[in-house]
Amino acid sequence: MIPLKSEKDLAVLRQAGGILARIMQRLKEHIRPGVSTAQIDLLAEGFIREAGCRPAFKGYKGYPATVCISLNEEVVHGIPGSRILTPRDIISLDLGIEYQGYFSDAAFTLSLGKVEPRAKRLIEIAKKALSEGIKQAVVDNHLFDISCAVQDCVEKNGFSVVRDFVGHGIGLELHEEPEIPNFGRPHCGAVLKSGMVLAIEPMVNMGTWETRILDNGWTAVTKDGLPSAHFEHTIAITDEGPEILTRLNG
Questions:
Q1: Residue numbers of the domain that contains 13
Q2: Considering the domain boundaries, does residue 144 fall inside one?
């Protein structure tokens, strides 16, 4: 059963999404060569608590940090630490917050300067794939219409979608029904209804879609060691179309 959110729920989720969008924008201003991933994590927690929110990831199933920071071949769930960013890195940040009992989740990928053109193209296509998936999040479409749109965008541009990790419903819990794969057949899956709130998150690899987990038990990396990119928005399905709750307005 995919939970439907009331107008009261959506009002708070809009606030949560706006707060998260502003926090993510502030973090972007501090991401540069010479900064450690641990420093970014400390900033993220400070910004979240300053906004009257709680870090949704810290302690979740034992995750030890506030923000997931994944570099280069790391796909998701990278753990911040002493690693120093360089101009040749691409960096993905995935961050969730809890605000007044409601959750919001978003992710983005940036290049820090001297990366190869194909890595820049990877980031562009991952971002575009998220947009294409969101366009399908309309009433009376099917869940896998979102999945298919993401997959089509990625694969026609010569990249691959990760199959081991998925998007998800969100709202009163960080992870709710349904799971949202980034691949699938159109016109399949649950019928989309107004009031559903989803975290859509393409994870796109330059090479193979296959991943493996590092010894820390969290960080997923590409099996072939090639780069990966990750974008995510929390969206609400409404009668007027998809509403991006984590988009920065103004």
A1: 7-244
A2: yes
